[in-house]
Design a protein that fits this description.
Length: 276
């Protein structure tokens, strides 16, 4: 079993590759997840595509910042107000940050945090090109954010925490950086039931946001245990992995059993508040 740091380094390397590609290239090379084509020529981009939601109609959408890596639209549910300070965890090329900027207006502040230098560089170039002087991107680990206590009104994140081994530390950090009465809205991948072990332990599926997922009940319990209130799932959407992808990890009988079971991979957007 890979260690905590080995898993993080694997994710960092894969998302460094993604940062060097555009959305269309990522979707034809399995989101930059490396060598993952199957024997029929299909690839893990189908997994990424099955998770991704369409941003095109959202105010502030910048196509150059959209690498097609999300599993929800957290900004749509985040109740962001004019003048807010918003932190985006795992900000990538800046997609959700720029959507959030359209909500906070010029008087607000957006901080994106990512631990991949190539992503930070790409996001900064996007912000500079757009002339956004109230959006900043910081290189850092969301398990230990390089930010002061109680500075954010809202924290958002899109399909990132499932990649982080120590989710407890991330929720504790979210609690720390939120102002009293602040809240978060996070889109993520969780499980309902048991994921077959061959998938859970497959490194490529981990980087594709699936085998790093935990049980939905455990995920919500972790949020509550951190001290958050008003915890609620704002949106839930099942993720269906194509059969040709599963064939790389499961036998025909295992695939049939998986599809016929109540076990599911789910995209959720969850909300919670830090008490005053």
């Amino acid at each position: 079993m890979d260690t905590h740091e080995q898993l993080k380094e694997m994710v960092r390397q894969k998302y460094s590759q993604i940062a060097l590609q555009d959305k269309s290239t990522n979707q034809t090379s399995c989101c930059g997840c490396g060598s993952c084509s199957d024997t029929t020529g299909n690839s893990f981009h189908e997994v990424c595509s099955s998770m991704n939601e369409d941003y095109a109609e959202l105010k502030g959408y910048i196509p150059d910042a959209d690498l097609g890596l999300g599993c929800g639209l957290p900004t749509q549910f985040a109740q962001i107000k004019k003048g807010n300070t918003v932190i985006d965890l795992g900000s990538g090329a800046g997609n959700d940050c720029f959507i959030a900027r359209a909500e906070v207006g010029p008087e607000g502040r957006i901080i994106g945090i990512d631990f991949t230098p190539e992503m930070i560089e790409k996001a900064r170039k996007n912000a500079e090109k757009l002339g956004f002087n109230n959006v900043e991107f910081i290189l850092g680990d969301i398990e230990k954010m390089p930010l002061s206590d109680s500075i954010a009104d809202v924290v958002i994140s899109n399909c990132v925490l499932n990649l982080v081994p120590n989710k407890k530390a991330v929720f504790q950090e979210i609690y720390r950086v939120l102002k009293p009465g602040g809240h978060f809205s996070i889109s993520d991948i969780v499980l309902q039931g048991t994921l077959p072990e061959p998938i859970r332990h497959a490194a490529e599926m981990y980087a594709g946001c699936i085998s790093g997922a935990i049980q939905q009940n455990d995920y919500l319990a972790l949020i509550q245990a951190t001290g958050f209130l008003q915890v609620k799932v704002q949106k839930e959407r099942p993720i269906v992995i194509p059969e040709n992808i599963l064939r790389q990890y499961l036998s025909t009988d295992q695939i049939t059993a998986f599809y016929n079971s109540s076990n599911r991979i789910v995209s959720i957007t969850v909300y919670a508040e830090k008490p005053y």
